[in-house]
C-alpha cells in the first residue's frame, strides 16, 4: 500500500506536544496519522487526521486502536506493551519495537542492558527497599531512580547522606552513583528498518537546579573533537545494539576527566531535538516519520547554531493560559516560539518552547536570557 | 483579546495548498484558523481548526463566515469583496484589505495602478472586443490577458500575428506588449499594520513553455547588484503604495537591456515562496501570519540556496493519485517533497512541490532535473 495521500494509517500512541510536532511534519508527506490520548483536549486533538480519546496504557484500547493501522508508533514510552506485542505478532509494524521499548521503559533493565553490551554508564545497584539502600550506603551521594513511571524530573531524587534514606523509593528502583560531570549532552539518532543510521549534531543541556528540568540547550555542544567522537560512537552503538527502528535520544554525561557515559535514552522524539525544526535541514520529527515508515533518512546537518528554551507555566499561576511578552519576543531576530496548544497553565507545566537561531554563540546565549525575562505564561 | 491559545479566530478564505501550509505555520503559535472552501475535500479540510464548506465568492456565505472572526485573510484573490467590505465596515480586520484586493483582482485596474504610481511595467491597452484589438494591431506580438478570473496560466494567451485575432478574449481584457525579457524574477514582501516592511530574497523562475506554469525556480536569483537594487526598490514601492497588510508576491521581468518591469502581483502567499519553508529563517507562511496578526515581521534571510519544482499530475492520468519514485527522491540529500493532500490527480494538476536545498547552484539544478525524472504522480 502506498503511504502518501492514501488509505494508509500511521497509529500514534500519545497526543502531547511531541505528537503535535510529528503531525506538522506528517502534513508535508500527506500521511494519515491516527492519534490516541486520554485527554480530549490533548495538543494533537485538533490537528490529527483522526483523534481517538482513550488510554494508551490499556490493553483493550491499544489493541482495538491498532486494528486499522499499518504502522504504529509512540510519542511517549509508558504505553501498553502487551497490546503492541500482540499487534506485532499479528503482522502490524510496531516501531519502535515493543521489545526495545520494554528495555528502555524500565530504568533497571535499561541500565543492565548497558552493562551487558559494554556501553559506558555510571555504576549502579538495583534496590527494592530502604534496607537495600542502607546496605549500599557507600554509594552515596547517588541518584535514586524509580524503575518505572519516572518522567520529566519525577521519579528521580538525589540521596546525599544517611539522613536522606527516609526519602528513598520503596518500589523497584536503582541507586546510581552521582557523577562529577562537567556537561550533559545529547545526540538524537535515527535508524530505519533497512538498518540505515543517522546522527543529529550534539546538543549541550543546561539544567535549572530548582525544578530539575532542562532550562535551555544549545547546539552544537562546546566539546572537544575527542569527546565528540566518543559521544557519536556511543550513540551509534546503543542504537545498533538496541536495533531500534525510529528515533533514539541518547543523553550522556561528560565527566571531569574526559569520559562520556550514557545517562539514559528515550525511544522517541525528544525535548533535546526541538531546535532541529529551525536549525537543521531535516527535523527530528520528519526523521522519526522517515524511520518508522521505512523511508530513506534525511540530512541531519545544521544550517545554523541554535538554542532552545522550555516555556514553563509561571509559578503561582493556574488556569486559562495567557502569554505575556509575545510581541516583544517575536521582535527579536531569530526567535521562534512554539506553543503546545494547552488552554490551561499550572506552575512549571511545559506550555511550549522557544527556538533561537544565531550563528554567534554568545549572542545566542544573551538572547536566551532576554527571552527568559520577556516571555511568561500566566493565567487570566 | 490574546491571539495565542485563546478564543481568537483567524478566518481564512480558501482552503487549498496555500492555506494548508499557512495552517502548518499557525500550529506553531497555536492560532485558531477557521477555513472556508467549497470543496469538502480541500487540502485544508482535515487540519484547519474549523472547516466550513461553502463558497468564498458568495456574499451571504462570506459575510456569515466572518461573524465570529477577529481577523479575516485570504489564500486566493477571487473572493467576494462586498462581503469583506461590509465586515471591515463593521469593525473586523480584513487583511489584505478589500480595497487592495480590488486593485489586484482585476488585471486592468492593476496595470492602471502601476501607471498612476510611476511603477515600471510593460506598455498595455485595455480592450473589450476583437475590434479593440484589431485597432491596436501594431502592439502585437502581445499578451492578451483577461481582466478578471485568470489563474495559473489560464486567462492569458499570446497573440503573435493578425491570424491569432479570432482567439482574442471578448470579455474586458488588456493587451500587453510582449517583453523581450532575459529573466523572470519575483520578490515576496510583507507589510504589517504598523507599516514595517520586509523583503524575501529574489527568486528566479524557469517556465515550462508548453503549459505556461513555473517549472522550477531557484533562489537567490542570478542577477547583478544593479538589477537586484531595482527589483528591491520596485517591490518595496509597490508594497508601500498599495499599503497592503499581508504578503505581496511581486513578479517582475528583467529586460535584455537591464531594466526591471512589474509583471503582476498577488496579495497572498505564492508559489514563488514555497522554498522559504526549508531555506529561510522565517517562511512566507509564518510571515503572512505575523503580518495579518499585527506581529513583528520575521527574519527573511536565506540560510541555504534552494530550488522548488512543482509536482504536477502526469499527462494521461486521471483518478486516485499514486506517487511513483518517492523513496528514490527522498534518498537524495536535501530533497523535501510537500504533498497537498489531493486524493485525485488529473493532467498538470498541482499535486505538490519539491524543495531542494544545496549551496552549490549547479548541483542544485542537477538535482532538479533528477527529481523531475524520478517522481511522478499517476493514477492507480
Automatic annotation (TrEMBL), chains A, B:
- Keyword tags: ATP-binding, Ligase, Nucleotide-binding, Purine biosynthesis
Stated family: Belongs to the PurK/PurT family.
Subunit details for this protein?
Homodimer.
Q: Give a single Pfam family match.
A: ATP-grasp
Q: What is the recorded name of this protein?
A: N5-carboxyaminoimidazole ribonucleotide synthase
PROSITE patterns tied to this protein: ATP_GRASP (PS50975)
The protein's annotated pathway: Purine metabolism; IMP biosynthesis via de novo pathway; 5-amino-1-(5-phospho-D-ribosyl)imidazole-4-carboxylate from 5-amino-1-(5-phospho-D-ribosyl)imidazole (N5-CAIR route): step 1/2
Detail which positions bind ATP: 107, 145, 176-179, 184, 263-264
Amino acid at each position: 500500500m502506498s503511504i502518501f495521500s492514501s488509505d494508509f494509517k500511521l497509529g500514534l500512541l500519545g497526543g502531547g506536544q511531541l505528537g503535535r510536532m510529528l503531525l506538522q511534519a506528517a502534513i508535508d508527506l500527506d500521511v494519515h496519522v491516527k492519534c490516541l490520548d486520554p485527554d480530549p483536549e490533548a495538543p494533537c486533538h485538533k490537528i490529527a487526521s483522526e483523534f481517538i480519546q482513550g488510554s494508551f496504557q490499556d490493553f483493550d484500547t491499544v489493541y482495538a486502536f491498532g486494528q486499522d493501522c499499518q504502522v504504529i508508533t509512540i510519542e511517549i514510552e509508558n504505553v501498553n506493551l502487551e497490546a503492541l506485542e500482540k499487534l506485532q505478532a499479528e503482522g502490524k509494524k510496531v516501531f519502535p519495537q515493543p521489545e526495545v521499548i520494554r528495555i528502555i521503559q524500565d530504568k533497571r533493565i535499561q541500565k543492565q542492558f548497558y552493562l551487558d553490551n559494554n556501553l559506558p554508564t555510571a555504576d549502579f545497584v538495583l534496590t527494592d527497599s530502604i534496607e537495600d539502600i542502607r546496605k549500599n550506603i557507600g554509594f552515596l551521594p547517588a541518584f535514586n531512580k524509580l524503575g518505572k513511571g519516572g518522567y520529566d524530573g519525577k521519579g528521580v531524587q538525589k540521596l546525599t547522606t544517611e539522613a536522606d534514606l527516609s526519602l528513598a523509593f520503596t518500589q523497584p528502583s536503582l541507586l546510581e552513583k552521582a557523577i562529577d560531570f562537567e556537561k550533559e549532552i545529547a545526540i538524537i539518532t535515527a535508524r530505519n528498518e533497512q538498518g540505515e543510521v543517522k546522527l543529529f549534531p550534539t546538543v549541550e543541556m543546561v539544567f535549572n537546579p530548582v525544578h530539575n528540568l532542562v532550562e535551555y540547550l544549545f547546539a552544537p555542544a562546546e566539546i572537544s573533537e575527542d569527546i565528540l567522537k566518543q559521544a557519536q560512537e556511543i550513540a551509534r552503538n546503543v542504537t545498533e545494539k538496541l536495533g531500534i527502528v525510529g528515533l533514539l535520544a541518547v543523553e550522556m554525561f561528560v565527566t571531569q576527566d574526559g569520559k562520556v557515559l550514557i545517562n539514559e535514552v528515550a525511544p522517541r522524539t525528544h525535548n533535546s531535538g526541538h531546535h532541529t525544526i529551525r536549525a537543521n535541514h531535516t527535523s527530528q520529527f520528519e526523521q522519526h516519520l522517515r524511520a518508522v515508515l521505512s523511508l530513506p533518512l534525511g540530512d541531519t546537518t545544521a544550517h545554523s547554531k541554535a538554542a532552545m528554551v522550555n516555556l514553563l507555566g509561571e509559578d503561582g499561576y493556574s488556569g486559562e493560559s495567557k502569554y505575556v511578552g509575545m510581541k516583544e519576543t517575536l521582535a527579536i531576530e531569530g526567535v521562534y516560539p512554539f506553543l503546545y496548544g494547552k488552554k490551561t497553565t499550572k506552575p512549571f507545566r511545559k506550555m511550549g518552547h522557544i527556538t533561537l537561531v544565531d550563528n554567534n554563540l554568545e549572542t545566542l546565549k544573551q538572547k536566551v536570557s532576554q527571552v527568559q525575562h520577556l516571555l511568561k505564561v500566566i493565567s487570566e
